[in-house]
Structure formats: structure tokens, C-alpha cells
Amino acid sequence: MSEPGSPSQPDEALLDLLIKQVTEGLSPAEQRELDVLDTDAASGYLRDFEQAAAAIALAGSANANAMPEPLRQRLDESARTFFAPAAVPQSATPSARAVSGFAANGWWAAAACLVLAVFGWVRSPSPAPPAVSIAPPAVIAPPGPMVNATPPPLAIPTDERAALLAKPTSLKIKLEATKDPGAAGASGDVVWDPATQRGYLHFVGLAPNDPRIHQYQLWIFDGARDQRYPVDGGVFDIPANATDVVVPIHAALDVHKAAAFAVTVERPGGVVVSAREHIVVLGAAG
Amino acid sequence: MISSVLQRIASGDPAAVRECIDEYGALVWSLARRLSRTPSDAEDATQEIFLDIWRSAGRFDASQGSDKVFIAMIARRRLIDRLRKNSAEPPMDPVEALESVAWADPGTASETSMEAEQAARALAELRPEQRQVLELGLLHGLSQSEIAARLSMPLGTVKSFMRRGLIKVREYMNIDAEGVLSEG
Predict the structure, then answer these.
(1) Helix (H) or strand (E) holding A217
(2) What is the pTM of this model?
(3) Per-residue model confidence as pLDDT tens digits over A182-220
(4) Are B179 and A8 in contact (CB under 8 A)?
(5) What integer pLDDT is reported at residue A181 of this predicted model?
(6) 3-state secondary structure of A137
(7) Which domains does chain B have, with CATH numbers?
(8) Quick one: closest CA in A to B1, which residue?
(9) Number of CB atoms found within 10 A of residue A93's CB
(10) What are the DSSP calls for B9-36, one per residue?
(11) C-beta atoms of A50 and B76 within 8 A
(12) Which of A81, B31, B140, B170 is most buried by a 10 A CB count?
């Protein structure tokens, strides 16, 4: 291996951190260290190491056993509800669903208007929208496949977010409430680091949700992608009695040029495509 | 033409979601069982992993690797995340943690996936102690420090074995011939 830190070779410390990230994960302090050492090439090395680790895992799983039947049944139930009718307009044609399965033109218009008119895209609430369920303070989410999929927002170390906020190359965007009834009083911000593809949402006053009924879902509009297909940024909950919440962003795709962020209210577990019936907060890059 | 079950999920095909469980359930369960502290944890992790898979299906790019590698990458990310979040809990059951691994035969691993065969061929070239480090770290979820303690091996040696093993597999996978691949 050539000299560490040379232009064509990653730094030794960077390599150690990337391999540790792939094999056992990083502590917040190590993540901050990685942020400092991070280079454009780091994400490529990380992906390659992840693929190598996955290949080794496959090679070591030659005689994988079937899962227990009760677990299989739980998964089947999750699969049955994954594409709930509410996620796909009844009028969607097969050809339309093959493209997006949802109001693709709406998203495209959303992104365009976000960039051009800053929130001017938000449509007025429909005449009789289904009410957004707000969790009463005493409600505790029951165990369930979709509920368990969302990490507790309050467990996220705020120092990681602070580190991203301090990073000069991070994108900082203010989030503003729409006219949706469920958005009243909400505000927030987002910090997004394009290099590491990590980021956090921060909300003040966003209504708590009952995860048995609805969950919030983030969508990221990538200026380098087809704007009809915003990137899924993950689902999350606002706990009862929480007024100030930090939520990690889990982008399903690499975001090359974050242009706008939107949060919708969706069924538990989120959706692959959104009917954008309830958009609660929006933010666009300047 | 859409052929992969992942591509079908991304296109909104409800039937593909269940087929995904049929096709990859054993793999995900196997990974979850090894990298979870209890069977109950493994079941919860398996559910979370499948949700991740379904929601990330649109990210699958067949030109970047096989569907199984994509699935295993998602599974490992989630499992490592869970292990870190539960790091304050008692360590994994040592019996479960050291459950023997059935490595794929380099000659037949292609039945699993091309990448599995490439990894099996690369692993076959490693010394037994190098292979053991990879097994403990990647298949049983032990940290580098835990591996060093278990094998009475300097931490620096564990790091070196881990790095070289990953690079060796990466070479066999023919990923980007530049950069770290030149290390011996």
C-alpha cells in the first residue's frame, strides 16, 4: 500500500474507521472523527467494504435454516399490509403504477414549486380530508412489526446532530408548516451532510402521532434525480408530550443534490409511494 | 424488463413483497440469528430488516451487485445498528455466538450467488487465523476488541486481518482495482 494520505490512497485512520463502521458500527466520537477525515472517495470505499462483508456473510450462510413459522406468519401479515390501498389511488392504472404507483405528477409539481416559489406548491386541504390522528398523551404504541421499525427519536444523540451542524459543508434548511390541519404550530429544521449521507430533522411543535394509526414520513427531493421520485427518508414518530424532537434521516437512496425536504403523514410503516394527502412541513434549499 | 423481486416491489407489485420473504427469508433469519442477542431479538430484527428491504427496493441496481448482496448489506446495517443500540445489555450467549459456520464450498458457492463464490475462493486463500477473525467479526458480530480478547491476539493484528480479508474478497469481486486493493 502506498503512503497513507496520498492522493490516490485513503488515510490509514480513515480505512480503520470505515472498516469498523462496516464490521461493528461507530461510536458518536468515532463518527465525528470520520466526518473530519471524510473524503469524496470514502463513500465509495465504504460501499465496497460493505459489499465484501455482505459477500462473506453469504459465503458463511450456506446452510441457512428456515425461519420459525410464527415469525413467518408475522412477516406475511406485514407483507399483506405493506401496499395498503390507501397508499395507491384506486384510480391508478396498471401502467401508471408501473411508473410510480402514486401521484407522480404531484410530486414533480411539488418539487418544482418548492424550488421556484418556496412553499407555494402546497395545496389547500381537500374539502373532507381524513383527520390526522393525534396521539393522546396516555397512548403507548403497542408492539408490532411496523412500530418496531422506527427507532425512538429521543434516543438519538444530539451531539451527532451538533457535529453535523458545525460542519461547514452540511446543508441547513428551515422547515415550515403547511396549511394542513395536522401541521398547526409546527416548525423545524434539517441538517444534511451530502458527503456522509447523514442528517437529522429537528421539530418543535409537531403534533404527536399514534403509530398504530399514522406515522410521519420524510421525502427528499434530489436535484440530480427525476423529481417525480423523491427519495424516501424514513418513517418516524413524535412521542406524546414531546415538544422538541430530533429524528435521524434514513435515506433509502443516495441523495446527490438535496433540493427540498417534505414530511407527510402516512399509514404505519410508511409507504413506498405517497398520495401526499397530508404534507405537514416543507423546506427547500436556498 | 422487470425480473427481480426487488424491482417488482419498487414498481408497486404487492405479490412481490411476499415472494421476497419466500426467497430471502432463510438468509435474513440466518444473519439475524447470528447477530442478535436472543431469538426474540432476532425475530424483531428480521421484521425490521424486511421492512427496510421493501422500502429500499427502489435502490437496488443489478449492475452494482446481486440481489442477495443487496439484501445482506441491508440486513447487516440494521443488525449492527441494533447491536450498538443494545451494547449496554449483557453480551451475546457465547454458545450461540460461536455456533459453527458452514462456509460455502468455493466450487459450489455460485449456487448461492456469484459474490458468495468469490468470497469463498478468497477466504480459502487466507490462513485459518485470518479466516477466524473474519468469521467472528462478520458472522458472529464480535467487535475487534472482543475478537482480540477471545483469540489472545493483539488488537492491531485483528484489525490487519480484518482489513486484509475484506480487501482480498473485494479483489475477487473485482471492485475498483484502484486504491486500497494494492495492499498485500
Answers:
(1) strand A215-222
(2) 0.57
(3) 888 899 999 999 888 888 999 998 988 887 778 899 999
(4) yes
(5) 83
(6) coil
(7) 1-92 (1.10.1740.10), 100-184 (1.10.10.10)
(8) A98
(9) 9
(10) HHTT-HHHHHHHHHHHHHHHHHHHHHTS
(11) yes
(12) B31
